[in-house]
Design a protein that fits this description.
Order of helices and strands: EHEHEHEHHHEHEHHHEEE
Bound molecules: pantoate
Strand order of the largest sheet: 1-4-3-2-5-6
Length: about 280
C-alpha cells in the first residue's frame, strides 16, 4: 500500500494505477462502515484508493473539528488489511492553499435537514469532494447510505458537473443491536449509548409499518418520534419523511420512494440515521 502525504506523491502513484480506480473518501477513525466501502471497491475495481482528511470547511464554528477522533496508525493498518492500494493523507494547506477562495455549492437539497442544522456543511463537503475527485480521478466513488443526504448531494454534484464518476451507494453498517456505525458514537456515555438504540428501533418500526401498508407520512414520523421522546437523554433535532430525490417533506399518503431520516442530539454528539421506504 502506498501512503502519499502530498498531492504530488499521490499523483505520481496514481499515474501508473490500473483502471478501474475505486475511491473511498474518509475523515479517518475508521469503522466497519468505512471498511465495507473499501471491500465493495476491492470487489469491483483494479485499484482501490482511499483518503483520510478531516476537512475543516465542513465543520461549523461550534462543532467538533478540533476534537474529531483521529487514529492514523490504526486507520492505515485497517486500510492495508482491507486491500487498499493507495492512501492520500493531504495536509490542510495543500487542500486549501493560502488565499483559496473557491467553493462548490449545490443548492436546494442542501438547504434542508442536515443543511438547515449545519449551515455551510454541505458546501464544505462538496468543495472537498470535488478537490479529491480532481486529484484521484476515480472511475467509481463509494459512499455510505448512513449519510443519506450527503449521498444525494454528491450524486447531484457529480451529475451537474458532468464528472465521469459512478457514485456507488453502500448499505448502512450497524452494530449487532442496530445502532448505525459512526465515528461520533465514541462521544456517547454508556446511558446515552443505550438510549441511542431508540433511533434505529424507531426507523425499523416505521419501516415495518410501511411494509405492512401504513402510508400516512404524519403517522410514520410520529412512530419514530414516540420511542425517541421516551428516552430522557435524547433531544430530537428533526424526524423527516421526504421525497427520496428532491428531499421535499411529504404530507398525506406516501406514494413514491422516500427517505425517513432523523437527527438526535445527545450531550456530546448529534447522531443521524435513515432508511429508504419504497412503495
Ligand atoms: O462522509 C465523510 O466522511 C465526509 O463527509 C467526506 C465525504 C469524506 C468528505 O469530507
Amino acid at each position: 500500500m502506498i501512503v502519499a502525504r502530498t498531492v504530488a506523491e499521490f499523483r505520481a502513484a496514481r499515474a501508473g494505477a490500473p483502471a478501474p480506480v475505486g475511491f473511498v473518501p474518509t475523515m479517518g477513525y475508521l469503522h466497519q462502515g468505512h471498511l465495507a466501502l473499501v471491500h465493495a471497491a476491492r470487489e469491483e475495481c483494479a485499484t482501490v484508493a482511499a483518503s483520510i482528511f478531516v476537512n475543516p470547511t465542513q465543520f461549523g464554528p461550534n462543532e467538533d473539528f478540533e476534537r474529531y477522533p483521529r487514529d492514523e496508525e490504526r486507520d492505515l493498518q485497517l486500510l492495508e488489511a482491507a486491500g487498499t492500494d493507495l492512501v492520500l493523507l493531504p495536509p490542510v494547506d495543500e487542500m486549501y492553499p493560502p488565499g483559496d477562495t473557491t467553493r462548490v455549492r449545490v443548492s436546494g437539497i442542501t438547504e434542508v435537514l442536515e443543511g438547515a442544522r449545519r449551515p455551510g456543511h454541505f458546501e464544505g463537503v462538496t468543495t472537498v469532494v470535488s478537490k479529491l475527485f480532481a486529484m484521484v480521478q476515480p472511475d467509481r466513488a463509494y459512499f455510505g447510505e448512513k449519510d443519506g443526504q450527503q449521498l444525494r448531494v454528491i450524486r447531484r454534484m457529480t451529475r451537474d458537473l458532468l464528472l465521469p464518476i459512478e457514485i456507488v451507494a453502500c448499505p448502512t453498517v450497524r452494530e449487532p443491536d442496530g445502532l448505525a456505525m459512526s465515528s461520533r458514537n465514541v462521544y456517547l456515555s454508556a446511558d446515552e449509548r443505550a438510549q441511542a438504540l431508540s433511533l434505529s428501533a424507531g426507523l425499523r418500526a416505521a419501516s415495518e409499518a410501511f411494509d405492512r401498508g401504513e402510508r400516512d407520512a404524519g403517522r410514520l414520523r410520529a412512530m419514530v418520534r414516540e420511542g425517541i421522546e421516551a428516552q430522557p437523554l435524547t433531544d430530537i433535532n428533526y424526524v423527516s419523511l421526504a421525497d427520496s430525490e428532491t428531499l421535499e417533506e411529504l404530507d398525506g399518503a406516501v406514494g413514491r420512494a422516500a427517505m425517513l431520516s432523523l437527527a438526535v442530539r445527545f450531550s456530546g454528539a448529534t447522531l443521524i440515521d435513515n432508511v429508504t421506504l419504497e412503495p
